[in-house]
Amino acid sequence: MNCDPPQFTYANFGNAFLTKYCSSCHGFTQQDMQADPTVFIDVAVTSTYMPLSTTTPSRAERMAFGMWLSCGAP
Length: 74
Known about the structure:
With 74 residues, the chain is mainly α. It is built from 4 helices and no strands. The chain has helices at 10-21, 30-35, 37-46, 59-70. Helix 1 (10-21) crosses helix 4 and helix 3 runs antiparallel to helix 4 (59-70). It is globular.
């Protein structure tokens, strides 16, 4: 995976993803994602049990979220 330059950033991806799928229950920030990305990869990319709402990310969105997190959530 090439993170230089990052394909996904908070501005072009992270903010919209967190707003659409996470913020209504958790209110996570970019800093939260940067603090422990492996936890978020586990619950939202690998395990896919989050979010609990009826609106869930597509597989492509989950993969993009994982890439964003793996690159340090820039």
